Amino acid sequence: MSPWPWLRRPRVWRIAVALAAVIGALLWLGDAWMRRGFTEYPMAAPRDIPAAVAAGPDGAIWFTIDFSDAIGVLRDGRVERIAKGQQNFEPLGLAVDGTGAAWYTDSPQRAIARVSRDGSVASYSVGTPVAKFGRLAAAPDGAIWFAEESAITRFKAGAFMRYENGSLAAGPFGVAVDAGRAVWASIPRANKLVRISPQGEIAEFDVPTRGARLGDVAVDRDGGVWFLEMQANKIGRLAAGRFTEYAVPTPSAGLAALALAPDGAVWFTELRAQRLGRLRDGVFAEFRVPRRGARPFGIAVDAANNVWYTDLDGWLGRLSAARAR
């Protein structure tokens, strides 16, 4: 005889089947809710690893591809690979200028390069025996700024200008240009922000949290400087000479990249937590990337407030502006 004779009752089985159906429906609805607003595009080549991402003024979404001889672009819903001739490694610097051309760093070639909208590529050697690049930014005046191992460098009208004084020698990473043409950089090893004025004067600012390991830098419309504190798991802001720091709700989230949206929100990727994060008016919101095992890395926001991100597992993703709100 069964030790659980009640299991033989038809009503018990009907209840169990109904409960299973309800649980399945709830799981399906939860998955559908999580996926709401997300669109993901697979890479054109199965082994491509998308890294940095940038949104162009024409709606094109550009991204670099690690360990690849190509750069990627999404146009009209289709992912394209544009051959650039040589394999890249850690292509972390990427920006789109006012003409819609994409600029990127190319460490193996010790150069920065420009790919126009028609796919033609031009490369400019930095003239050093070894090159290790961080981020890259396109300024409104047409200058391209980028972080090297021991300098912040400007490229304009075919000429390079290096700024190497002070803490810049410790190895800058993040780069941003504000509306007044001043350049901001993060120095991870020195735990500082650096400002280069349009006249070339350099000022340094010590970040309050020690050992924060600074990452990306961005400047908002009010002149506030936002930056990642990757080791400290914080988002920082410097405005009017004062620092404000915001602790990310998810511990050890794996902060990887930062971008500002036209609506004033600060967006960032959480590589280990498989999420996109948003900070607005001092309040955090987090959005779990719907695919299991995702590794969101680069992030950018287009003119319509759609949030774009790269996934190191081989995807380019989009969170719609409506869902992002």
* Strand residue content: 35-45%
Fourth CATH level, the homologous superfamily of the largest domain: YVTN repeat-like/Quinoprotein amine dehydrogenase
The total of helices stands at 2
How far the N terminus sits from the C terminus, by CA atoms, comes to 60 Å
Largest sheet: 4 strands, antiparallel
- How many domains comprise the coordinates? 2
Overall mean pLDDT stands at 91
Spell the H/E element sequence: HEEEEEEEEEEEEEEEEEEEEEEEEEEEEH
User: What is the correct CATH architecture of the largest domain?
Assistant: 7 Propeller
Write down the CATH class of the largest domain.
Mainly Beta
Helix fraction, binned, reads under 10%
How many β-strand stretches? Answer: 28
Which parts are unreliable, with pLDDT below 50 for 5 consecutive residues or more? 21-33
**Helix/strand/pairing category:** mainly beta
What value does the Rg take, in angstroms?
Answer: 23 Å
Any chance you could write out the topology, listing elements then pairs?
Layout: H1 10-35, E1 38-42, E2 49-55, E3 61-66, E4 70-75, E5 78-83, E6 94-96, E7 102-106, E8 111-115, E9 121-125, E10 136-138, E11 144-147, E12 152-156, E13 159-163, E14 175-177, E15 183-187, E16 192-196, E17 202-206, E18 214-219, E19 225-229, E20 234-239, E21 242-247, E22 255-260, E23 266-270, E24 275-280, E25 283-288, E26 296-301, E27 307-311, E28 315-319, H2 321-324
Antiparallel strand pairs: 1-28, 2-3, 3-4, 4-5, 6-7, 7-8, 8-9, 10-11, 11-12, 12-13, 14-15, 15-16, 16-17, 18-19, 19-20, 20-21, 22-23, 23-24, 24-25, 26-27, 27-28
